[in-house]
């Protein structure tokens, strides 16, 4: 698209969405305008992320993107906790994890794989991601498996302990991956090796980004801010729209909110996958789901202590099944550090299976 | 065995089995004759498969064999669905999956491993097989885990959706493995590398098959046809024999029918393993179980719509445990693309554990 | 520590612990003295193990250590079975398995990883260990998953069959790993490769052990004997101490007894990990848990037949969850044959999660 047209449309849709949000009573109009604005800001975010990633290295760029994308989710979830809508919070946490592991990763692998025969990324990082996913599943599985043997108070206590341990684990992971073992976990080197297979693929080093380092960071911040705003407005109107369509809270929380809330990760990851930077794409999808499972979700357990209803980590059977199943198939597919279009198809099939099950439950 | 003797015995046992089937009332005699004929036709099928595999390449040969072997099972299962014996259908699906993953693969690894120290096959194909097995387990696990939250009608709907998704996944897998990524998934190259370890092993290239390409294909079709016929006759008489021995329907369906129905895969896979063509042997065993889980089983859900009782994909705890456990241990053992006799022993031990459990349940 | 001081303290603490055990009524004093003596004997055992491992090769040394360490546990468990305390036996079996897979292995990876950036060991052995762990989990999972469909008598029968199959599997594993495929599964070669990364690391070949081969073996036997004795005395006094503190039998069995009973493995494994002999350290931790799951636990099913109450293999949900979760995370971390400090942290976090859950249940 012509850049001038793009920026005009971005400005216009944001303005109209804001006017509709504050002054227009019709949910359908607000929904449509917020969607349009969100999609454009997400595209903007994708471009800014790629530009920052160019300066910062893939891994740090991916981390920044996951963080900014999930900041929106943490804010939305905190509002839900304040309202005491704890089931909706757990559904949206579940939805974000499986949305990233199955939908975002699946689409990245599929679209990247349709363009490049085989794409590869650092298998050492992939192995660690698998172990971290397993840690997250264990953190949710243990309280659920033992919940019938525990009193409500004991469930609270166990949830707080596990939440604390997962946050400690996540902080140590940042120290490990960013400081002590940055070298082993870099995605750059492998990217370059992977691209040797494809003689005509884009070489990141030869691309000159449109924006300076400072402007890239500024645009990353600004577009993350507007993605968060538009996500929230969309969520506000989507519930009314969804209820009019007769969908359950579980389905809305786990699929609709999660898909919209992860639009940023979507566009950014698929964008990078189609540029054969699969390492950065995986980092966004998997890193984002790990951050939700190991940081956002445990943090909400502590945040909930400031409100009337405390939240525990005991998820429902359907939610636990969804998270465990997603972690296992994503682990099996990403373990070898090499991907293709069919592996994307498998992730999307599992996403559709879970989506159908959640719709019917 | 002298070829002339073999063909004479094959002809004689088939003739006598046919006469007994139509004119003889005693189940024991019919059982014995059908068994003998089946074993001989299975040996014939093994030889024809190997000959076709020589011309077609290991992978396509393995696929053909799995298809022909499972055509028999699909026909038998369709008759059971028509009779409304849906529990027996699910038990025999379960039995075919675990029979291929544990018994056929276990015996192949054991006998191949007793002859060759280490045998290897394409680890990329092995990795994909593992992910596909996991997809099949997820397809069975999700409806079972959520079944208590669903009405009978919702279970039907979910089963139909999942069945449709699994069939789409299977068709795309065929496109992926046969067309777009044939090169990466070939078993031939790795076979040759694997054989370098063993200086005196048989070199497939130097063997001249007894039959021409056309005759090989014809004999493959003919022997598959007779294996299917004899399997069906055997199944007809074995139920009476089994009930006389006091065995449960679950055990008969999951073990006796499955062992006999997979006799073709057995002999062919073990035959190839002992020739150090482990890639083709694994393709038969694993490919066959994947085809049952991702194609035969979902197809039966749709086929059942034409009869009075619709079949869903909600399997019992025992069946689901058996399939999941088999998929996990087979995945763990096959993942590295290298096998030995002890890995065969582990698969057989799991088969015996499940067999004992099914016998007692 | 100065050797003369060490031996004096070892002699003195053992003497005082013995006097307290036979003549002193106060549990706290007996507990403190037995603890001190145990820690010193465990250190002695670690040194003797390393010396024997130097002569015997890492793998045989690791096996000897695991065997001697578990002989103590088998003796203690047999006494518990005689008293009919079957729940305590199962809790201590669970605790030993997870203690080795999470605490011993976690501390080894953490302390080894703080000294060496990346440590490696034979990935072929690691792959087999993962499959064996899975076999052990299957052996416990199948009777538990089907237990509600089985009568008490059928549960006995199934337990005896599975116990027999696991013992056969374990014996064949010894034949496989010690005789037929010793070469592929050696940890020595990989160790040396691993050490190339670290120029200044200790080279095992250049170290001259303090003791001769004969003396090393004698000291291994003597220190194992005293570790067993002191473990038993400690267990005798710790129950009174624990009950005074208000802890449940499950927690005491699975954590306190297991930690103390595995003190020998602890010190030896961590000692080796800090000398960058990670292959031998993993062999102690994983080998020990496999031996308990595949040999000690099934053997107790048969041993229990000689006493009034027969023991079955139906473990509780909490125990099964703990074993399965430990096996999965340890498998995920050890599969690639390469470790670092953060992987140790993940194992320890899971250990703390399970410890908290068992404390509250």
Automatic annotation (TrEMBL), chains A, B, C:
Q: Where are the transmembrane segments?
A: 30-48, 60-81, 93-114, 126-146, 158-176, 217-238, 250-272, 284-307, 313-334, 341-360
**InterPro entries associated with the record:** CaH_exchang, CAX-like, NaCa_Exmemb, NCX_ion-bd_dom_sf
Can you say what this protein is called? Ca(2+)/H(+) antiporter
> What does this chain do?
Ca(+)/H(+) antiporter that extrudes calcium in exchange for external protons.
- Tell me the compartments it is located in: Endomembrane system
Q: How does it sit in the membrane?
A: Multi-pass membrane protein
Any one Gene Ontology biological process term?
intracellular calcium ion homeostasis
Q: Which GO terms describe its cellular component?
A: endomembrane system; membrane
